[in-house]
Amino acid sequence: MPCILNTGVAGAGCNPREEVGRGGGGLADRSTRHEGRRPRKKSPETPPSGSGGSPRPRPSLAQGVQREAPFLGEGPDTPPPSHEPRGLVNAALGGGLCPAVCRASCAGGRAARLTGPGPPLYIARETTAQSEHAPGQESSALLERSAPARLRPLTPPTMALGLEQAEEQRLYQQTLLQDGLKDMLDHGKFLDCVVRAGEREFPCHRLVLAACSPYFRARFLAEPERAGELRLEEVSPDVVAQVLHYLYTSEIALDEASVQDLFAAAHRFQIPSIFTICVSFLQKRLCLANCLAVFRLGLLLDCARLAVAARDFICARFTLVARDADFLGLSADELIAIISSDGLNVEKEEAVFEAVMRWTASGDAEAQAERQRALPTVFESVRCRLLPRAFLESRVERHPLVRAQPELLRKVQMVKDAHEGRLTTLRKKKKKTEKGKEAAGAKEAGKGAGDTKAEEEEEEEEERVLPGILNDTLRFGMFLQDLIFMISEEGAVAYDPAANECYCASLSTQIPKNHVSLVTKENQVFVAGGLFYNEDNKEDPMSAYFLQFDHLDSEWLGMPPLPSPRCLFGLGEAVNSIYVVGGRELKDGERSLDSVLCYDRLSFKWGESDPLPYVVYGHAVLSHMDLVYVIGGKGADRKCLNKMCVYDPKKFEWKELAPMQTARSLFGATVHDGRIFVAAGVTDTGLTSSAEVYNIADNKWTPFEAFPQERSSLSLVSLGGTLYAIGGFATLETESGELVPTELNDIWRYNEEEKKWEGVLREIPYAAGATFLPVRLNVLRLTKM
């Protein structure tokens, strides 16, 4: 069984407190648990070395959040239509088209239960050889997912469902009836019908088919002389076998290969319970690879629940789905259903326009001609009013597909007029007045037949309709804001320095201690660090956590673990890869490393990259223009370095650059305004407040305005064109006159005009022990604190 070790510090080389004692600082001690693994007990907070007092209480994220963050990308769940149980088989999944009906389990009884986390998916039944319950005391089980071999004990229906005594007896009688019918089927008793599909025959009972399916009932009543034989065309014999098996046993096996055929069969034969099971199965397995197919299937079978779920999934990931080849195969109506949604997760309307143009230009000559004819209608769903004037003139108006149709040019001119504030003539649409509607209703009901006055009252008025291209309602994804993302063991909090607001992004406590975080140019957030010990892996049981933040669900996703656990390392990214550079081993000896691990974001695999020219830890790693920069740190002799080198993944080589003016480690570094800024940190003589800037084009370091206080582990963040400095450790004097390392949680910004640092916040909650990243997040998904 895997276990988790608390490795906030591991020896002298990885102890931030020791660094502070020598004039340095480090990351705060943090603990974590990992999803799917055994959580460990959280170690108590310890005060800084030499403080002699209790640690300052840290506010809890749970205390700061009063409610869950609303997810405005999805509307409220519409209550599913209720279906009265028909006939003998009434088992259905809750939350679907039919209410959940569970069977009693007693003598020979069975309970429908959804089992198995993945394909194949079974609805298994449990039977007992002898009854241990009197009638009315039977037990039943709610439909729920569980491992096939771990069926949970059945619970009395009075506890699980709160059923009345009469309802319990009714369910018990249904169970006995189904058991008896299945027994007669197995022994070939009273069989009066043969269902033929392909080359196979299925003897059964007409009464069972007619009771469970309006389709079969109508077939039998329409042709009573041929009721003994029922031929089903265009249906696979295997599908028919599964349907009949379900009608007699409430058991069904689902997987990706069979669910579509069963879904279509349930729709054709009008069996709502199988239909609902298939819908739930497809909803839970929506992914980028199948969302478009599921969306079209929902429309084809007129299943609003499935079509809406798939459409919402597509809208939330529109930029990724629009690159798929299946996207180009959508019909005009299907495309309009997607791009007309307010919940489209696009930051700019330009992405919608480009997707529509790619769709129009795809396919053979005949398909392109048909799509060009439909383009004026599709174009109404592109909110051109949200496009910048420059893009409208340079890209939209000059596009060959737009210039080829005068109607589209008129629409573009209408948008340009709206940009200039000129009123557009609105389309007129006839609309009946309330008085006219009442008269029409009376006429249809026969109440006003021959009444000429009612006919005269059918008045009409004209309603002015704004063209769709002038719709300036923002899409859901257009509420992105530049925020400072604070990641700690308590959770993740986003801070808006412009509005001075904090938002709760995640309450997850999976983040490991002494982690390192990274945000990519695609705005993806990763965290690496900590230590995970897997007892089952005898050869190499130690690995480190590697997590990715899911912006849509506000959760941390477990990624393939870091194969070589280490501390005081750096993270960088270039060309769809993430690099783990240097650090110190979390093993015996705590050896300083020059190795570089590479994670391929396309194949989801770890590998080794070219090693550094020297061993280093406590350094800074930055990424810019698909290059990885390594700055400062400490070498094998624990002396601070002023070295700087850059890695080019296209050339597979490291190159040394101009060294810093001050050798340092555990300092703040960021790319701001196309230059690299470093500030504060630890030197061989103690803490420093000095700062310097590196001009990438000139390969030259120059002095920069020093930070107001000597600190280590200072964080520099470039956000919205402003340079911020956050937190870190400083040596402060206590009341007794003793100097102790103290963690600070304040925020500073650099004033470009006055060339000085200015305080923003003296203390920001939830920043203790956190790492900080500049991230763009949708504030509609977050909860304001």
Give me a quick take on this structure.
The chain is an alpha+beta fold and 785 residues long. The chain is 24% helix and 26% strand.
- For the CA atoms, what is the radius of gyration? 33 Å
Stated plainly, the CATH topology of the domain at 476-784 is called Neuraminidase
Strand content: 25-35%
The description of the largest β-sheet is:
5 strands, antiparallel
Gap between N and C termini, in Å?
39 Å
Subunit arrangement of the protein: single chain
| Topology, number of strands | 38
Q: Tell me the overall shape.
A: globular
Mean pLDDT: 79
Please write the CATH class name of the domain at 476-784: Mainly Beta
CATH architecture term of the domain at 476-784? 6 Propeller
CATH superfamily of the domain at 476-784: Kelch-type beta propeller
Strand-pairing-aware structural class: alpha+beta
Percentage of helical residues? 10-25%
Low-confidence stretches: 1-161, 452-459
Q: Can you describe this structure?
A:
It is built from 20 helices and 38 strands. α7 (237-249) crosses α8 and α8 packs antiparallel against α9 (272-284). β31 (686-695) and β32 form a beta hairpin. Among the domains are: 427-465, no CATH class; 476-784, 6 Propeller (Neuraminidase), CATH 2.120.10.80. It is of the alpha+beta class. The radius of gyration is 33 Å and the shape is globular. Strands 1, 15, 16, 17 and 18 form a 5-stranded antiparallel beta sheet that branches. Residues 1-64, 425-465 are annotated as: Disordered. Residues 425-434 have a biased composition (Basic residues). Component of the BCR(KLHL40) E3 ubiquitin ligase complex, at least composed of CUL3, KLHL40 and RBX1. Interacts with LMOD3.
